[in-house]
Amino acid sequence: MNNFDVVPVIYIKNKVMLKPNIDIEDLAKKTVGLINEINSKNKIYSKEIQIDCDWTLTSKENYLKFIDIFKKFSGKKLSATIRLHQIKYFKKTKIPNVDSGILMYYNMGTVASDSLNSVYDRKIAERYLKSLKKYPLHLDFALPIYSWAVHIKNHRVVGLRSKLNISELKKDGNFKQMSSVFFKVIHSNYKNGIFYEENDVLKIEAISSEDLIEMAEDLNGNSPQKPNEIIFYDLDEYNLKNYEKNIFEQVISCF
User: Fold this and answer.
1) Where are the domain boundaries for CATH 3.20.20.80 in the chain?
2) What is the pTM of this model?
């Protein structure tokens, strides 16, 4: 691992911070201990640790306390994920005591059976973009390159199905394309371990190369300073196949 800068990311559910009798100091110490144990076993040396938690007004006191204690015991550079609403209303949600933030520029809307894309919606993003210039913490950006299918049964959402895209469903005779993003199940079948019943509907939510360029340009035009990092989530083999090789360089060049 000597050739890579590895940043352990710790995901904490908000409900953890809402527990009434939670021992924040104990949680912070144990989290640091677990990271050190994993790093030691895998011979990883990390300069930075990232905390991912979508804290709320009711959990902010516990979360901010956790960050303070965690930073003290870890002795590492600390970053934290930040959502759009936490930027616009930072005077209420407060700012964690970290060295930098990672703006998660995705999952903006509500997962629903309509035609809107819950992963990215420029109209929703525009409600928050102007607030970036007032946010006092340095921000890097995480952009989405994943796709999923919203599984709809009798007009109700019953689940999200990862690792599905339009080109894959077009090749599958069990599905019929009804519009640009909607597919109907014409033969009951199992796909990737999930059962799809006849007349179920799948809505594909994906991010195009044009979307990525648009995101980058909007962020660059509203940010007070250049990001140090651009994160593409989720940068795996499946998602990489859905984009041209030079798109990531094009996106980075927008900043």
Assistant:
1) 9-146+207-252
2) 0.93
